Amino acid sequence: AIRMTQSPSSFSASTGDRVTITCRASQGISSYLAWYQQKPGKAPKLLIYAASTLQSGVPSRFSGSGSGTDFTLTISCLQSEDFATYYCQQYYSYPPLTFGGGTKVEIK
Amino acid sequence: EVQLVESGGGLVKPGGSLRLSCAASGFTFSSYSMNWVRQAPGKGLEWVSSISSSSSYIYYADSVKGRFTISRDNAKNSLYLQMNSLRAEDTAVYYCASGARVWAAEYNWFDPWGQGTLVTVSS
Fold this sequence. Notes:
The structure holds two protein chains of two kinds.
Chain A: E1 4-7, E2 10-13, E3 19-25, E4 33-38, E5 45-49, E6 53-54, E7 62-67, E8 70-75, E9 85-90, E10 98-99, E11 103-107
Parallel strand pairs in A: 2-11
Antiparallel strand pairs in A: 1-3, 3-8, 4-5, 4-9, 5-6, 7-8, 9-10, 9-11
Chain B: E1 3-7, E2 10-12, E3 18-25, E4 34-39, E5 45-51, E6 58-60, E7 68-73, E8 78-83, E9 92-98, E10 100-102, E11 105-107, E12 117-121
């Protein structure tokens, strides 16, 4: 199984900050990576697929990059509604489809 | 509006069974692979099972293989998860989620997701 490792697991940031979350795959997954945002008590929401393609309706302050084993999710200017937990997911090789452990973005 | 609505969750004793349902609307259900993903309380996301659009391909996580069965009824726009021999570690919110389709190819990123249904396995 492909293991997805996210870092950091949590951090504090302020509104307006530029933040970057990293996701590393245990083996190459080309660009078969998605990013999700989850708020407490809610279902996850797709932000990005194919490593860098923004899902329709997602604000342009979100961006994704990377290929192979190393990927990043960047929020260019953190807004209050962006405080949430973020997950990466590989869909290159399955079963199993695998998620990263999550990165919780908290208010500083 | 594209919508997925899960039902069937509840409290069940260890060793018991439960059948989850997911009703789809607002999109051509029969054209998309479908998935179940779960989240234990306070934990991350765990993929459980996938079924292709025509039910030709079915996959399970090792943690549920042999106990859970995924199925779909394209005529009823519905997805199901039959869960048998339930264990305490199956306690989670279960989400159904659609796969994606780009031209003729199916991909397993998940969008949209249902609101989830809570399954609690406890004596």
